[in-house]
Amino acid sequence: MKVKADENIPFRLVAALRDAGHDVQTVPEEGLTSRPDMDIWSAARREGRLLITQDLDFSDMRQFQPGTHPGLLVVRLRAPGAVALAARVSAALKTTPLESLAGCLAVLTERKLRIKRA
Q1: How many CB atoms lie within 10 A of CB 11?
Q2: This prediction's pTM
Q3: DSSP state, 6?
Q4: Which helix (H) or strand (E) holds 4?
Q5: Counting C-beta atoms within 10 Å of the first and last residue's C-beta, which end of the chain has fewer, N or C?
């Protein structure tokens, strides 16, 4: 699956996604660090990539309506360190394949993965 990892996603998660066979591009690798959210969002949409981010601004379903984009996974952990974040996302993807989030707005917390579909 084609994925764009926001600058707040740790490289260990990026590496795990790549190891799983996903085509992952990162905001830092593309020189988009510190750019406005809409620049990152536009790049992800233009490239047909699901965006993985910790930025809560992307959880607004009115602005990021399911079915109108390649997909969005917002990770919201109380203690979002690199190790915890990579472990939580990896655990969630064992039961919910990344491909099943295509076109969806998904929010992942410590306790559950909520998926809004079109």
Answers
A1: 14
A2: 0.95
A3: -
A4: strand 2-5
A5: C
